[in-house]
Design brief:
Methylamine Dehydrogenase, Chain H; mainly beta; signal; about 475 residues; 39 strands; WD40/YVTN_repeat-like_dom_sf; 6-stranded antiparallel β-sheet; about 50% strand; Immunoglobulin-like
Length: about 475
């Protein structure tokens, strides 16, 4: 099911326990050669840049790989001990939450610098997870304890443990966050998130309900079933199963496109992704991917699908318009999930003006304007200015010798802040240049356009009475 920063129901997940129930447990699977790679992969430092990134937990290699979806390359590797299993992104894209089944813990990855927090114990067999639409709470399904841990994302503490009596294969929040759906063998359980109580249990005999994908309007939920090879269709208003769509070949994960017309289904039986028309309830295309596809994630516009291949140690990238694989990216060992996050970005652009003030004590007045060109809100920034050699003062920056440090406060998109400098002109300048150069040297969030991070102006003077800033 799909997991994106804008769809906190967490739809791209893996169900290792469901695999075991179906005789396909990743841990017991025979060695499989990694999938062939059609795109060059690389691992670099952890600093994030602007754009959308895919976070892929790899249970066997104890790490999370970060893929830049613009270039389909691995740009960071984050060590996560304890068998990282599933991942979900916060709605604002600042965090990715990762569970570790073997350790029974949760870690939080900061998408600004791709570092993980210390582990937070949640329960035995910590597996699937779902973030509320406002990002304030996180549900973690503890498979072995058959309960849910409720995590306050601000304090990063477990605030409640709910005894739901479900060894969940998957959990997913409805788009409005009012209901939490849990799947297990032959049953689907529904939780009211206002009261955190179970309100319904739906029997699905002779089945293995696995992953859940919601229609964008929340009117229907689609549940993959590896035992009966169908997608169960649930009416979320009546909370009943109203039909089934045959998809064959052990359907594992499911994601619904943003327009609500199609569902993409990862199929373990033949290592393909089925493109399903929801209007006709039929498979319209079958896309070969890597070995044992375990999780699906759709780009926010639905143009690309990212498929984690659990036994192929790769991610397949599908063009959903042509239903073709356009790239295969090597990741770690045993990728079981995939979460898309778009870290917030704010383009802080600098402009600088210089105004001559000729006179017996002539000077040059510089005005620095820092403007947030978006798309996100600027939290903070630091601008460092290299000053002319002669005396320069500033009423709103800290000046030390020929360097000034200027703090830029919180700015909404389109907002701006100004800083001012005054440089004295020497009595006998005789063509001396007076150059001030300002550069953004730090800030949050990431700046997607470093090309406008520096501004410079130069004036020349013969005497304090003759200053040229043209």
């Amino acid at each position: 099911m799909l997991r994106t920063a804008t769809r906190p129901s967490g739809p791209y997940r893996t169900a290792l326990t469901a695999l075991a129930l179906a005789g396909l447990a990743l841990a017991s699977a025979p060695p499989v050669q990694a999938d062939p790679i059609s795109a060059v992969s690389r691992t670099t430092a952890v600093q994030a840049s602007a754009g959308t990134f895919a976070y892929v937990p790899n249970r066997a290699s104890n790490d999370v790989k970060v893929i830049d979806t613009a270039s389909n390359t691995v740009t960071a590797t984050i060590d996560v001990p304890g068998g990282p299993t599933r991942a979900a992104a916060s709605p604002d894209g600042t965090s990715v939450y990762v569970t570790s089944y073997s350790a029974g813990t949760l870690r939080v990855v900061d998408t600004a610098n791709n570092t993980a927090t210390a582990p937070l114990p949640t329960g035995r067999g910590a597996q699937d997870l779902a973030v509320t639409p406002d990002g304030s709470r996180l549900y973690v399904a503890n498979h072995l304890d058959k309960n849910l841990a409720v995590v306050d994302t601000a304090t990063r503490t477990v605030t409640a443990t709910l005894p739901v009596d479900v060894a969940a294969n998957d959990i997913a929040l409805s788009p409005d966050g009012s209901r939490l759906y849990l799947t297990e063998r032959e049953r689907i359980t529904i939780l009211d998130t206002a009261t955190d109580t179970v309100v319904k249990r739906i029997a699905v005999p002779a089945s293995t309900p696995n992953r859940i994908g919601f229609a964008p309007d929340g009117a229907r939920a689609y549940v993959s079933d590896m035992a009966t090879h169908v997608l169960h269709v649930l009416d979320t208003a009546t909370e009943t199963v109203t039909g089934a769509i045959p998809v064959q070949q052990r359907p594992f994960d499911v994601a619904v496109t943003p327009d609500g017309t199609r569902a993409l289904v990862a199929r373990n039986g033949n290592n393909t992704v089925a493109d399903v028309s929801l209007a006709t309830a039929s498979v319209t295309a079958s896309v070969p991917v890597g070995t044992r596809p375990a999780a699906l994630a759709l780009s926010p516009d639905g143009a690309r699908a990212y498929v984690a291949n659990a036994a192929g140690n790769s991610v397949s990238v599908i063009d959903t318009t042509t239903d073709t694989v356009t790239a295969t990216v090597r990741v770690g060992n045993g990728p079981g999930d995939i979460a898309l996050a778009t870290p917030p970005a704010a383009d802080l652009g600098l402009t600088l003006t210089a105004t001559p003030r000729p006179g017996l004590t002539g000077r040059v007045d510089y005005t620095l304007t820092a403007t947030n060109h978006g798309p996100g809100r600027l939290t903070n920034a630091t601008v460092t200015a290299d000053l002319p050699a002669s005396g320069t003062t500033s009423p709103d920056c800290t000046v030390t010798g020929t360097t000034a440090t200027c703090a830029v406060p919180d700015l909404a998109p389109g907002g701006s802040a100004t800083r001012h400098f005054a440089t004295s002109v020497a009595l006998l300048s005789l063509g001396t240049p007076y150059t001030l150069t300002a550069t953004r040297t730090a800030g949050s969030p990431t700046d997607p356009n470093p090309g406008n991070d520096t501004a410079s102006r130069t004036c020349t003077a013969l005497t304090p009475l003759i200053i040229n800033c043209a």
